[in-house]
Amino acid sequence: MKRRFPLILLLLLSAATVLAAAGADWLSQVPARDRQKTNPFAGRPDAVQAGRLLFVDHCAQCHGKNAEGTTHRPSLRSQRIQSEASEGEVHWLLVNGNIRRGMPSWSKLPDPQLWQLVSYLRSLKPLE
After folding, report:
1. Can you tell me the distance from the alpha carbon of 16 to that of 90, in angstroms, rounded to the nearest whole number?
2. How many domains does the chain contain in total?
3. Bridge partners of 98?
């Protein structure tokens, strides 16, 4: 029994590390083809407005009414969302979610609505 303890401990630590890494950085999981996607609604004020309405209905409960984040959910005005991630990467996150971090998939929304959400999110001023 004493011989098995270090092996079991090593296996548990390895599994915990893999699980933590799997949900830690969603940007590293985005396929190249999705990174390159561009928003077909870019620069359209009507898309920003439609995206705002979708945000209120689907996202504000977790991310706050001004997308500044809550105690348990991140701000969507962060540099990561506003400038580090491409529009295609943000779209990918909306489609796929990140369930380990509590982000559901919004793949049931039509693709144009997902792009409208991206338009709205990109219209927000980043937090400093």
Report:
1. 27
2. 1
3. 103
